[in-house]
From TrEMBL, chain A:
Transmembrane segments: none annotated. Keywords: Proteasome. This is Proteasome alpha subunit. It comes from uncultured prokaryote. GO terms for biological process: proteolysis involved in protein catabolic process. It holds the Pfam family Proteasome. GO terms for cellular component: proteasome core complex. Gene3D superfamilies: Glutamine Phosphoribosylpyrophosphate, subunit 1, domain 1.
From TrEMBL, chain B:
Keywords: Cytoplasm, Hydrolase, Protease, Proteasome. One of its GO terms (molecular function) is peptidase activity. The keyword Disulfide bond does not apply. This is Proteasome beta subunit. One of its GO terms (cellular component) is proteasome core complex. InterPro entries: Ntn_hydrolases_N, Proteasome_sua/b, Proteasome_suB-type. Gene3D superfamilies: Glutamine Phosphoribosylpyrophosphate, subunit 1, domain 1. The keyword Cell cycle does not apply. Transmembrane segments: none annotated. GO terms for biological process: proteolysis involved in protein catabolic process. Pfam families: Proteasome. The lineage of its organism: unclassified sequences, environmental samples.
Amino acid sequence: MLTPYDFQENIQQRAQYIRNRLQAGSPVIGISYENGVLLFTTRRRGRKVFEIYDRLMLSAIGNQADVETLRLAAIDFAHQEGFVRSPDDVTVQRVVGFALSPALKKAFGDPLTTPFVVRALFGELHASPERDLFYILNYDGEFTPAERFAVIAGTTRAEEQAMRFLSETLDGIPTFEKAIPAAMVAWGIAREAAMQEEGEPIAESRARERLREELQEAQIELGILERQTMRENRFRLVPAEQLQGYLRHL
Amino acid sequence: MPALPSSEGAFPRLEVHGTTVIAVKFKGGVLNVGDRRATAANVVMYDRADKIIPLDDYTLMAIAGAYGRAMEVVRYLRHAFKYYARSQLQPMSLDGKLQEVSRVLASNLPNALSGIGLFIPILSAYDPDQDAGRIFFYDASGARFETPDYGAAGSGAERIRGVFDYIAKTKGAFSERPLEEVLREAILLLDIAADLDAATGGIDKVLPTARYVNREGVFEVPESTLREIVTSLRGG
């Protein structure tokens, strides 16, 4: 029997479908530190942290093809703006708010198209850490700015737990050396919490164990935008060798 | 049909504006040094022009000629190289970058022939395949030539050509010598060019620009280092 089309039910079903698929995603932890901004996550196959523009980077959880579409749209918009006007006019607020969000919203609300399965975290570098910005962009086009640190993970509860840990651990603006261990534990908390339906807050020891388990099959991907650098490009992926010291203390 | 605006034969005089930019190899990379003077006819327009410009982490461009047009091309090239690297998740090949420079020079030829937009770049790059620095220079139509050890462009370049030869023949190839030595030679060469060419700024009033590229990327030589070299060249 044909049932009448119910907009609300349709939206709920789409959201549920996306949330189910996002749940298993490897969380991304963003932290603004003294000499830069970092995005920390793990990867099994393809790249996870991407340079978008001179001071802008992106990492996301979700469907690979959808992340790719979002990434290229962001790069196209940023480069057109930067070339026509100035690199200074390329801001995360404009890239996310004007270039990406309306398109996501449109795809999400249109019952005849497949919605994007994606939740993205942008990190934007500024002259001082107090002004660094993170933007979280959701599959339905909603976006939220954040300062100092930000988390995207498989569930809202997982994000909240990791955020709570970061706000308790990071006292002011951390150094890179302090930010990495915090990012590692926050990743473990977010990952573990996303895998549990209900339950107690995740203990730090459990979070560390979760990351160690993950690293048997995956590797860390750490993208940074450097505030003070001699290099032309501020963005780079930190090589695995540089993280060995931190992993020994995990 | 009106004659070409020239009294010197079939082509209008392709005047490269006053400047001296130098590219020399050192062990592991390429050093670029340039004076800071920008001229229009016999007027010094500006004495802090930067003529050595990084295009990306492995490519430097030294420019001689019409500054405005050159800057527009530099802006285009920087975006083109970075856009490619960011969107394709791999850097553009060295050959790809060199072709792109040829293409913009070829499309700039009408400007050059009309006498308003000629500029001649020297491209210095670190080549990961050869693990060495490489230097390329171009003519106004976009033809590309590779030079084995050093190159220079601008009105002062021709005046110091013999000095390069003299240094290379008496002290050995630049590409085998350490950066510190080559930097000193390059500043001295620029000083000689400024002595012989009115359109080349000196090294005393405003320090020259010096950047280099090697396996680690593109770097700027700090002012303090340049200041020390200039002072010691002056016998201080």
